[in-house]
Automatic annotation (TrEMBL):
Pfam families: DUF421 (PF04239), YetF_N (PF20730). It is found in: Cell membrane. It is a multi-pass membrane protein. This is DUF421 domain-containing protein. It comes from Muricoccus nepalensis. InterPro entries: DUF421, UPF0702_alpha/beta_dom_sf, YetF_N. Residues 2-71 form the YetF-like N-terminal transmembrane domain. Its main location: membrane. Coiled coil: none annotated. PANTHER family: UPF0702 TRANSMEMBRANE PROTEIN YCAP. Keywords: Cell membrane, Membrane, Transmembrane, Transmembrane helix. Belongs to the UPF0702 family.
Length: 152
C-alpha cells in the first residue's frame, strides 16, 4: 500500500506542476480539447497509480491520499500565503488605462478580443473605458472601469 500512496503523491505533485506551467487561462476556461486531454491523462495516471492492483481497496487508498494531499495543501495555503503566491501566482495586469500590455497578454495567452468580451459583459464597449483588465489566478478576467468624467 505504501507504494500506491507514494505513486499517488508523486502523480499529484507532477500534475499540479504541469497544470501550473500550462497557464492560468487553461484552467479558467477549459475547451473541449482541454477536457479530452485531462480525461486521457486521468486514465493514464490511474493505471500507473494502481499498477497491477486494481482492487477496490487500492482505489480507496488513492482517493484518500488525494484528499489528504488536497487538505494539506489548503492548510499550507492558510499558513504560508507568501509561498502560495509563488505556487499559484498573482493577478496579472493585461490592460492599463485602455492600453494592452502585449507582453503580459502573450505570456498569459489572452487575446484582446477575450478582454473586450469580458468588458462587454459589464457594458463597456471601448478599451479606453477600461482602467485595468486583470487576469485573476482563477483564470477569469476582471475589468475595472475608468471613473466617469467628474468622478474620481
Amino acid at each position: 500500500m505504501t507504494d500506491i500512496i507514494l505513486r499517488t503523491a508523486v502523480a499529484w505533485l507532477g500534475l499540479t506542476v504541469l497544470l501550473r506551467l500550462s497557464g492560468r487561462r487553461t484552467l479558467g476556461e477549459m475547451s473541449a480539447v482541454d477536457l479530452v486531454v485531462l480525461l486521457i491523462a486521468g486514465d493514464m495516471i490511474q493505471q500507473s497509480l494502481l499498477g497491477d492492483d486494481a482492487s477496490l481497496t487500492s482505489g480507496f487508498v488513492v482517493i484518500i491520499t488525494l484528499l489528504t494531499l488536497t487538505m494539506a495543501y489548503a492548510r499550507a495555503k492558510a499558513s504560508w500565503p507568501g509561498a502560495v503566491r509563488r505556487l499559484e501566482g498573482v493577478p496579472t495586469v493585461l490592460l492599463r488605462d485602455g492600453r494592452p500590455d502585449e507582453r503580459q497578454m502573450a505570456n498569459s495567452r489572452v487575446a484582446l478580443d477575450e478582454i473586450l468580451e469580458a468588458a462587454r459583459l459589464q457594458g463597456i464597449t471601448e478599451p479606453e473605458e477600461i482602467r485595468f483588465a486583470l487576469l485573476e489566478v482563477s483564470g477569469q478576467i476582471s475589468i475595472i472601469p475608468r471613473a466617469p468624467p467628474g468622478r474620481g
